Amino acid sequence: MRETTPTQDLVRGIWRENPVLVQLLGLCPTLAVTNTVANSLAMGLATFFVLLGSSVLVSAFKRFIPSQVRISAYILIIATFVTVADMVLQAVVPDIHKALGAFIALIVVNCIILGRQEAFASRRPVGRAALDAVGTGAGFMIALLLMGAPRELLGSGSLLGVRIMGPAFEPWVIMILPPGGFLTLGVILLGFGWWQARRRETVRPRLWPHEVVAEEVA
Amino acid sequence: MGELLWILMSAMVVNNFTLALFLGLCPFLGVSARVSTAVRMGAANLFVLLITSLSVSVLNAFVLGRAPYLRLISFIVVIASLVQIVEMVIRKVSPTLFRELGIFLPLITTNCAILGLAIFQTNRGYGFVEGLFFSVGAGLGLTLALVLMASIRERLELSTVPALARNMGLVLIVAGTLSLAFMGFAGLFST
Fold first, then answer.
1. ipTM given for this complex
2. I want to staple B179 with a disulfide (CB 3.0 to 4.6 A). Which of A213, B19, B44, B168 is the partner?
3. Can you tell me the distance from the alpha carbon of A17 to that of B165, in angstroms, rounded to the nearest whole number?
């Protein structure tokens, strides 16, 4: 495995290997709970906590986890932290807990978390695992907010519950409904692809079948 | 009987797991490039959903009444072991089917539709029979969404889309449109 510096471990997950925008992992919560900024924040914080806790624990216990049952062991550790997060949210912010519904429990099967355990925490020292978890968690949170802010702004004309748009603004209700989630992420990914394409403009773009044929005829 | 039919149809189209509840998006986006694989993936999911629902009924009836805080952990352990057992049985009984399903089978463990079904079934207090209809509806709904998506993507391959849009972004926008169409089913059961 390639050696990395602590700074790289921390920064990598935030943008260049962003779990959602680049690796397309953890899409279920990204689409399901981002209809308001408050929900996105709560989901981001809960996932951040679970990721950090499980990475530290997996890294600390890596010598004792037999490799044949490692996935089950990771899932059990993750499920324990999710149960804690679930109970804390229910006690502290009952409204948001209700809005997120089953998706808090579903953090267990968020592939970002299991992926980091398998790819990183299980073979690195505790400190590095924690840095990696912080970076990846922050990257996930950024992606959730990128989704949540436009959806709440256009769908209900407010941000964090505070009205931003004037009274003449007709809310785009579709944005807070399920199709709005797909459409928003689609537009974000198209924009991201456009931005990446602009960065490596020198590289020849890939041709599609009809274009290849057209070129051969010419 | 009407109630049971309602549960089935509701899970299948009105509250479609993929297009309305965002469960099981990984296979929906990952293995929806070909119709034939989409059908197989849907069938595998349907089967696992069915046996998960059966075991969740048993767990709810005999174990979790006394220890509700163990819910999540016991669900995920049961699902992981079930998928493992199904994999072993299929490998033994039908090696051909096993080869065709390939990597999809173990990946079903981390498909949130399965755990989602277990949680919904518990939260809504469905018993054994209701759970059975609920899981079949959910499985058929997943298969329907997968096959629709795969058919659209096969057509998309041959159409003239700007090269820039040839990534997941386009697939998600197609999914958004499908989801919009499925919202039309919401009025199906208004009385």
1. 0.84
2. B19
3. 21
